[in-house]
Amino acid sequence: MSYDRSVSAANHDLLAESVWSFQMPRVRFGAGAVEELGSQLRDLGVDDDATGLLVTDPTLADVGHAERVAEALAEADYDADRYDECEREPSVAAIDRCVEFVRDEAGEDGYDFYVGVGGGSVMDTAKATRAVVANGGEPLDYIAEPTGRGEAVTESGAPLVLLPTTAGTGSEISPLAILSVPSEETKEGISSHHVRADAAVLDPTLTTTLPAEQTAKTAMDALGHAIEGFTTHEFDSMLRPEDAADRPVYAGRTPVTELFSREAITLLSSNVRKAVHNGDDLAARTNMLRGALFGAIAGLTAGANLAHAMAYPVGNRYHTYHGETIGVLTPASTLGYNAASDPDRYAEIASLLGVETAGMSNRAAADAAKEQYVRLQQDLNVLPSGLAELAGIDEDDIGWLASRTVETQQRLLRCNPRPVTEADAYDVFEDALYNW
Ligand SMILES: [Fe+2]
């Protein structure tokens, strides 16, 4: 087949990508979905006499969500051990500990099924643990070189069901588990379609206990996925791998992700104020969870880009929450630096964010998108105004952050709609010191 589209690449034998695919866990969504967990496991072929592992953290045990999930398992006559020592933003050592727990309690082959209930950190712990148990070895074996050993995850392992308690990370459907590697001062992903959960059970009643500050932070992550997924490269501007198995999990935006990102931007931006200021508003919580799911289908299928690439070095050095870091970086990066790549698309983002764009030039509308986003953050009243307030970051710190972004985040930067040099990253970090 000939394909005469021009693609810039070192290897001129490769053709432009012409195939896209779409992979998702099975999804159940709605109030009361937790009580269908047993039915979900049976749909996945888990036998009556199976013993599983419930992965969670101490906070979720305290507010009763872990208990509710345990009861749903018991109602369905499933036995399950519990591991509730997940760490926030888990390190490779945290995964080692969970893997050791599994091998000690259930043997080398692990449990018959896994259930993770919590935020992104818990869900990533469950995903990474199952992957390591199924494939052997330790987490670093499956992290890309040079940080890890770059081995492929080839086995999915026993069925895994994830139940998110925040409307944010999208880990319940994403093909990766993000881990920190403290010795390298970086965050990396174990990335494979085999890492993805088999089912996601999204019940908005699990999210109503989340405090205002956490609600706002996780919402910024979700909105980041939606906007980044909407602006990342199209799949056919990537290169087609010689072997389809080598197609990256972040393969560019597709006709499917486009649909979900538009809806996600609207749902999240029009419900986040209500969810933050009145956490018991179940309709707003439902819309946020739906928006976060749709944003994840967009950004975590197509590929997140610049704000996420810049957020990992920040989070790793300063131990900031992922969502608030994304919120601080988005105006300067995704909505600032990247806007020149496609002003028409950015004008559409302005409109999706609720800006009345009639009569505006596309350039003016793109600028208005950034202003509208900053105004939204100000309205939430719990988010930092920039990198300076986030972690006391100043001009002296951003050289290191810029070099780490370019050195360690090519997985994300390859999807970015504008090329990013270290000097560009420096300028964007500088711009993000103060958003207001
Ligand atoms: Fe994220």
Automatic annotation (TrEMBL):
Superkingdom is Archaea
Please indicate if the UniProt record lists Nuclease as a keyword.
Answer: no
Listed under catalytic activity are: 4-hydroxybutanoate + 2-oxoglutarate = (R)-2-hydroxyglutarate + succinate semialdehyde; (S)-3-hydroxybutanoate + 2-oxoglutarate = (R)-2-hydroxyglutarate + acetoacetate
Task: Read off the CDD domains from this record.
Answer: HOT (cd08190)
Q: Which PROSITE patterns match?
A: ADH_IRON_1
UniProt keyword terms in alphabetical order: Oxidoreductase, Transit peptide
Q: EC number(s)?
A: 1.1.99.24
Looking at the record, the residues that make up the Fe-containing alcohol dehydrogenase-like C-terminal domain are: 254-432
Q: What Pfam families would the database entry show?
A: ADH_Fe_C, Fe-ADH
One of the record's GO molecular function terms? oxidoreductase activity, acting on the CH-OH group of donors, NAD or NADP as acceptor
Protein family according to the UniProt entry: Belongs to the iron-containing alcohol dehydrogenase family. Hydroxyacid-oxoacid transhydrogenase subfamily.
Q: Under which name does UniProt file this protein?
A: hydroxyacid-oxoacid transhydrogenase
